[in-house]
Amino acid sequence: MQGTPPPTSPADSYTPTDRTVPTRSAHRASYDKELVHAILDEGYVCHLGYVRDGAPVVLPTLYGRVGERLYVHGSTGSRPLRTAGQAGPGLPVCLTVTHVDGLVLARSAFHHSINYRSVVVHGVAHQVTDPEEKRTALDALVDHVVPGRAADSRPANAKELAATAVLRLDLDEVSAKLRTGGVNDEPEDLSLPHWAGVVPVRRQYGTPLAEADLLPGVGLPGYLTAL
Amino acid sequence: MQGTPPPTSPADSYTPTDRTVPTRSAHRASYDKELVHAILDEGYVCHLGYVRDGAPVVLPTLYGRVGERLYVHGSTGSRPLRTAGQAGPGLPVCLTVTHVDGLVLARSAFHHSINYRSVVVHGVAHQVTDPEEKRTALDALVDHVVPGRAADSRPANAKELAATAVLRLDLDEVSAKLRTGGVNDEPEDLSLPHWAGVVPVRRQYGTPLAEADLLPGVGLPGYLTAL
């Protein structure tokens, strides 16, 4: 059996469904849990889609992950959170996270592309009612933005908790999609005099700008210098 | 009338609708065309939402802008492009573009936020059938990724054009939303010993990686050194 990869345990990957098997470029899809978690944990802004009056709505929002659950939050007055209700059937959503890694410039316009890693989660979001789960979710949201920050800020008080709605989305119907590598030009285009290659793209953090009214002696925390 | 801003001409801004007036943080919304165009032109990846079997789908995809029209493209075999059809009623979509500009770290977990600029476009996407419009749209898609690149690549041939479907979405029901500035902590939290401030976030391009088989003498084009 040399050369044959070990069979993937069902526990290691999400089960593909009709919605998570792409019609195009299926070789770029993955259901590997570790890969999905890594892509999710590198980000903090997702695009959350839901249906309102039969039409799609896509909004950028923060998210956090705790194990096999994602959390998003918002004001209790916001549309999707009101729609999800507290005791209702939940809100069908599609939550997508995308990282751009490179611009792929081919000699032909047709083969231009992007190197990227994305995760798409389909499911039904439910409002979190358990106070402990709500706190855990809010900590995860803050720690997704800056790991270590939740412990170094004042936790939400009762009034703030009451004003904040949290939605839970289980990682169940999930796929990742990736493009990596160089240019795929047609053989007959290789003799064209155009530059071709990949321009790497990264997220870069600038120098943190402290508020003017910090308490004396409060310096830049280690989790920020590590960014 | 000193101190009163000049009335906004309808030509300068999009007309707000029920869908584009946010229920929360309405002060962060804008309908200014120049601002919307600037946010759109700074990006090249959008998140496109549509409804499939009653459930939302959100996919990352490239886009381009030509005046008051956005274009997305894909294989003629892809789901949303098939659904949009060539002669049908079109595909209701929501197209969202988001730029993250900073991490806003407040002393309280509750007031943590993100500085961002986003544009949300609601509408019905239609397949482009006019060959000239299709070529213009594909050039715009390439030039959104790297301005100046479309003219320095081989244009699509007849076979490639036939394999590519392009969707048009008019900029009509559109809003921008922005958060800028520093931390908004509660007055009673200012005496807490936590660091607070904003961490700037930018998109950074790395050194372009040329394909190994470029023609001799083909150097890095000026539009890439300018990135």
From TrEMBL, chains A, B:
SUPFAM superfamilies: FMN-binding split barrel (SSF50475). Its EC number is 1.-.-.-. It is an enzyme of class 1 (oxidoreductase). Residues 1-26 are annotated as: Disordered. Residues 10-23 have a biased composition (Polar residues). GO terms for molecular function: oxidoreductase activity. It holds the Pfam family Pyridox_ox_2. Keywords: Oxidoreductase. This is Pyridoxamine 5'-phosphate oxidase family protein. It comes from Streptomyces kebangsaanensis.
